[in-house]
What we know:
This protein has 18 helices and twelve strands. By secondary structure, the protein is of the alpha/beta class. It folds into three domains: 1-53, no CATH class; 54-187, Rossmann fold, CATH 3.40.50; 206-368, Rossmann fold (3-Layer(aba) Sandwich). The mean pLDDT is 98. (2Z)-2-iminopentanedioic acid (2IT) binds next to strand 3 and helix 16.
Amino acid sequence: xxxxxxxxxxxxxKNPNEPEFHQAAxxxxxxxxxxxxxxxxxxxxxxxxxxxxxERTVMFRVPWVDDAGxxxxxxxxRVQFNSAIGPYKGGLRFHPSVNLSIIKFxxxxxxxxxxxxxxxxxxxxGGSDFxxxxxxxxxxMNFCQSFMTELQRHIGQDTDVPAGDIGVGAREIGYLFGQxxxxxxxxxxxxxxxxxxxxxxxxxxxxxxxxxxxMVEEAMKCRGDSLTGKTVVISGAGNVAxxxxxxxxxxxxxxxxxxxxxxxxxxxxxxxxxxVKQIKEVERARIKEYVNRVEGAEYHEGCKGIWTVPCDxxxxxxxxxxxxxxxxxxxxxxxxxxxxxxxxxxxxxEGIAVFQAAGIVFLPAKAAxxxxxxxxxxxxxxxxxxxxxxxxxxDAKLKNIMINIYHNMDNAAKEYGVxxxxxxxANIAGFMKVAEAMMAQGIV
Length: 444
Ligand code: NDP
Ligand code: 2IT
């Protein structure tokens, strides 16, 4: 059995009951086959086995008190996956579905994504099965303080720098940072996505969504195409989805559908994003409210139907495995030409195969959504330098990074004989830097 097949098999055997981790590892290792052929020395060094085994996994109890005085207990996680090229870096996800498999898939993806940014950041991820929905601000603060009381002993500005992800935004980062500072007595860049009054970077909030659209714009430009007049469907109505919508509209596209975890809105006139922001960011309410505020808009219960809305560009920006084989086929039948992944692993392996067979321009998550973590690294640089860049400066750096990532993965795909296959291209381009750093650092 060849090296890649053997490692995939071992991962499944040694990590049972981790389907999301198996999925991410399979996608990555399949993409790396041409690299392994060219570098037989990696097998002797057990490079793939080391790459797919986290350097450290921390799991802990998070007890907190709810508003009724009842004690609640959640699970906390931080997977410090790979520090070959820099301190561990990656978000925290608070969602009831969180388990070790999900955190490990996110952490493994993060290693390659962070490498692709060209900045010195390793890969990690964490979170909790805590559900922020329906909790009061006081309960959110109690939870965040308890979570950080344990997490603080494992992180640090030069060790591991968490940030936001699903369910963790500016409010949660604020409470987490406050508790870190109180316990450690240091005001440092240990978290990114901080508020602008205490070390945050301009444009970090917008970065993932903007970066996604910058990459799509570059892919279109290379084909003599542009966003002007394009019809776009975006799943999600959170941080990534909202700012992808803002930038796509600014560049002349029409976004006609978005969803939250209950159902989707369709607005043939183009989504009024100010209304979505008011509902989701300010009121923390359900997106179905939109139809009460915008005439002519429709609401459909359930999420999957969103992929039946015809579009030129689909931007899945909510969560993993949102687009399965059946949804991918419908998108293709309806004439989709570009798919850009804002969420992490939003397309199943079967869904990706459908897009690739149909010749769709498919921009995989670890490249397309890297703008968020790239701007986090810019926030770290500003913290260390004790200075701030303007919005325009950060935005220009972000755009430049996204264009570079696009060309690096495009070139890697060409160099390794898989032109146009950006899944392989992104995996190869991200992996080579990590591989070289790991080989140079000895058996660790
Ligand atoms: P948010 O919590 O801000 O928003 C998530 C959105 O997706 C919400 O609208 C939520 O619906 C919806 N959603 C979440 N889970 C599900 C589900 N199981 N089914 C249907 N809808 C769901 O998170 P972000 O926007 O930050 O993250 C979205 C995706 O982007 C994630 O995959 C994340 O890993 C990825 N990402 C985020 C980055 C960042 O900088 N924030 C960077 C790179 C990637 P509801 O409102 O009902 O909860
Ligand atoms: O998936 C991701 O890249 C993020 N959630 C952002 C991580 C970060 O450290 O900014």
